[in-house]
Amino acid sequence: MKIQSILKVSALCAAITLASCGPKKNMDNNKMGDKEMMKDDGMMENEKTVMVGGAAMYPSKNIVENAVNSKDHTTLVAAVTAAGLVETLQGEGPFTVFAPTNAAFDKLPKGTVATLVMPENKAKLQSILTYHVVAGKFSAKNIIDAINKNNGSFTVDTVNGEQLTATLKNGKVILTDQKGQTSTVTIADVNQSNGVIHVVDTVLLPA
Q: Which of 204, 195, 21, 197 has its CA nearest to residue 92?
């Protein structure tokens, strides 16, 4: 099966999973971005949203419910589904997720994603994805403050158990993984009901 087919099937499974879960409990929204209105389900009116991948990200929805609507994160959603992490990232949290775009996954060696989403590689895929997740909700300001208070470099433990190092360059947060490669936060503070997403341009890899 071609990688495009694998990703489409996985993304469809994620959408079906979301639909079967029903509406989630509302939480107070964090205010940023342009005002948007929930038209059909009555969850919350006048939410202030951030646009990611051509879609409004609603603070009243959880991480997966929002991510599945971003056209820039179809590979990530497919990977989360293949890794069996949909339910986890729909949980109470809170979580801070550094979310790689499709273009970030495209930087990986050819065939890497197709290999990772195979059932026999589920544990490795889970390890990579949870390396992008930090327990707790940390805004860009929280991260920048921690960097400035620690002489320009701040190390944080991920859910994977390994660490990421955050620094600043030209006003942007740069993450360095265990292999020494860097990833830049391109969209910060995409608030969710169970945490926050920061969009990144490179897939982070544990040791």
A: 195
Which residues have a Cβ under 8 Å from the Cβ of 31 and sit 6 or more positions away?
48
CB atoms within 10 A of CB 124: 14
CATH number of 3-30+47-200: 2.30.180.10
Pairing of the two strands 95-100 and 133-135: antiparallel
Q: pLDDT tens digits for 105-155?
A: 999 999 999 999 999 999 999 999 999 999 999 999 999 999 999 999 999
Which sign does the torsion angle of CA 101, 106, 109, 115 carry? positive
Q: Where are the domains of the chain?
A: 3-30+47-200
CA distances, 70 to each of 57, 149, 179, 199 (Å): 8, 34, 28, 11
Its pTM stands at 0.80
